[in-house]
Amino acid sequence: MADRPVPVAEKRLMDVKLGELPRWLAGRNWSPNGLVGGVLGGYDRYYNKYINVKKGGIGGVAMFVFGYVVLSYVWDYEHLKHDRWRKYH
């Protein structure tokens, strides 16, 4: 038997086609509880995939540190940009 098609609202983000993206976003829960639930679910998936494993490596921790470095750079970019021009003038 062929699998029944899954509604767009129930698909994972990685399975959504570009044309289906607006309908998928409209089906999300944008309330504060829904956003907190999405963040906690993402954290649980990340933790179980990269941190809570029998034979762990540096990959999961390295991704977390890399994300922190990129986020810090984005937050401080305006200050760094102005500091770069002041440095030599």
UniProtKB/TrEMBL annotation:
Q: Write out the transmembrane intervals.
A: 56-75
The protein's location, in the record's own words, is: Mitochondrion membrane
One GO cellular component term noted in the UniProt record for this chain: proton-transporting ATP synthase complex
Q: Its Gene Ontology biological processes?
A: proton motive force-driven mitochondrial ATP synthesis
User: What domain of life does the native source organism fall in?
Assistant: Eukaryota
Please name one Pfam family that this protein belongs to. Answer: WRW
Offer an example of a GO molecular function term for this protein.
proton-transporting ATP synthase activity, rotational mechanism
The alphabetical list of record keywords is: ATP synthesis, CF(0), Hydrogen ion transport, Ion transport, Membrane, Mitochondrion, Transmembrane, Transmembrane helix, Transport
Q: What is its main location?
A: mitochondrion
Q: Which family does it belong to?
A: Belongs to the ATPase F chain family.
Which protein are we looking at? Uncharacterized protein
